[in-house]
Design a protein that fits this description.
Bound molecules: zinc ion
Number of strands: 10
CATH superfamily of the largest domain: ATPase, nucleotide binding domain
Helix content: 25-40%
Low-confidence stretches: 1-13
Largest sheet: 5 strands, mixed
Strand content: 15-25%
Shape: globular
């Protein structure tokens, strides 16, 4: 595997962290402190769960043997997943159409090997955290990251934390009004013409009979127009609910030429008359993601760091309780 030695790129004061990004087709495991300081990483093709997870976990076993010892691990997974801490199903995939993966524990295989605190979230939320730390939303406490590719997923950061609730947001499945004259039925298996059904990569491929990356000329212009109009309708609704400071757009479909600019333009139009916030018309409101494919893996390191913080808080609470109890006992 060729792991480098710990002394090679040590960064003073930064904890070595472990991350695992589980995507639909590959798992990325890494050790480092941030996107510019990855000490070791591996990609594993996703097959059936037990063999895939065992192969991924063995990367960390080798790393430990070579002296790369992380203090915490962050795991970002494709969903849907159970994020409720304390639930028996926390850290598990819930019901996925992906054969064999429903109900699979995607945290246990890694904590069993590493024996360190773990944080778990969706791959999209991990990517959102990374864009906030190092990418296109750096320094913002309230923003929304959307990935537009095979599906459409969104992560909302509010007050510096990703928004969870019952499960996690499913921003790709919001309802969007039809662009006038568009008769495409949509391809979401659940809703037909929701945002994902109208503006994801597969929707474009269905509409034009070939993938977005192969489109040229009038077809490409039409695809960019439709995707940007549907996204703008979605961004308007999300703005009405969350009032983000910025939208960061990533994912494969955003590599179509000028699609981010077109989405920014249509979004500004959607919001112009109301609520009338000047920043909605500014260049920085809708921007392209800054980290590309590195967002998800880097975000798992932010999750790992959060696991460390949670552990420190829990230890402090315990210590304070012990002190209080001793004081009570002394009367
Ligand atoms: Zn849907």
């Amino acid at each position: 595997m060729g792991l480098p030695s710990t002394s090679q790129s040590a960064e003073l004061g930064a904890d070595l962290l472990a991350g695992v990004e589980l995507g639909g087709t590959k798992i990325v495991c890494l050790l480092g402190t941030g996107p510019d300081d990855i000490r070791a990483s591996v990609r594993v093709d996703v097959r059936e769960p037990s063999a895939t997870l065992a192969e991924a976990a063995s990367f960390f076993r080798s790393a430990l043997a070579e002296g790369l010892v992380p203090r915490a691990v962050g795991i970002g997974s494709f969903g849907p997943v159970d994020l409720t801490v304390g639930n028996p199903a926390w850290g598990h995939i819930t019901t996925t159409p992906k054969p064999g993966w429903s109900g699979v524990d995607v945290v246990g295989p890694f904590t069993d090997v590493l024996g360190v605190p773990a944080a778990f979230d969706t791959d999209v939320n991990a990517a959102a955290l990374a864009e906030g730390r190092w990418g296109a939303a750096r320094g913002l406490a309230n923003f929304v990251y959307l990935t537009i590719g095979t599906g459409i997923g969104g992560g909302a950061v509010a007050g510096g934390r990703v928004v969870h609730g019952l499960g996690h947001p499913e921003m790709g499945h919001i309802a969007v009004p039809r662009v006038a004259g568009d008769s495409f039925p949509g391809r979401c298996p659940f809703h037909g013409d929701c945002l994902e059904g109208m503006a994801s990569g597969p929707a474009v491929a269905d509409r034009f009979g070939r993938g977005a990356e192969t489109l040229t000329g009038a077809d490409l212009a039409r695809a960019v127009d439709l995707v940007s109009r549907y996204l703008a309708a979605g961004l308007r609704s999300i703005t009405a609910v969350l009032a983000p400071q910025r939208f960061v757009l990533g994912g494969g479909l955003m590599s179509m030429p000028r699609v981010v600019e077109a989405t920014a333009l249509h979004t500004a139009r959607e919001l112009r008359d109301y609520p009338g916030v000047a920043a909605h018309q500014a260049a920085g409101f809708v921007v392209a993601a800054g980290l590309g494919g590195m967002a998800g893996p880097a975000g798992t390191l932010v999750l790992a760091e959060q696991a460390l913080v949670e552990q420190a808080l829990a230890e402090r609470a315990l210590a304070e309780r012990a002190l209080a109890e001793r004081a009570l006992a002394r009367g």
